[in-house]
Design brief:
rod-shaped, mainly alpha, 2 helices
């Protein structure tokens, strides 16, 4: 009976660990994106505050296209990383479930 309980709870414990590990990665990804976006916003505010001439304003607006491109590229990288995390989690979770089902079948076969 003890083996049966262990066989059933082991995959659940693995899934729990996998879920928390993945959640930690997602939260860190979000925190990193928040930090990068906050820094970019503060840099933009500093740049606007430093404008003191028409040429400075012109330079600021010219630089905006590069900044927008960088922000968009980071967003795409973050989205890819999130998709990779999701795919990895799905594959790992499916493997744990498959192994759990196999272990349960072996337990039933021996009892």
């Amino acid at each position: 009976m003890n083996t049966f309980i262990t066989d059933i709870t082991a995959p659940l414990n693995e899934l729990k660990g996998l879920t928390f590990e993945n959640l930690d990665k997602v939260v860190n990804l979000q925190l990193s994106a928040l930090e990068q976006n906050t820094k970019a916003s503060l840099d933009q505010l500093r740049d606007v505050a430093a404008i003191s001439s028409l040429d400075g304003l012109k330079d600021y607006f010219i630089a905006q296209s590069d900044i927008a491109k960088q922000v968009a590229e980071r967003a795409v990288e973050d989205a890819r990383a999130l998709v990779d995390l999701g795919n990895s989690y799905t594959n790992d979770a499916q493997e744990i479930v498959r192994e759990g089902c196999t272990a349960e079948r072996k337990t039933k076969a021996t009892t």
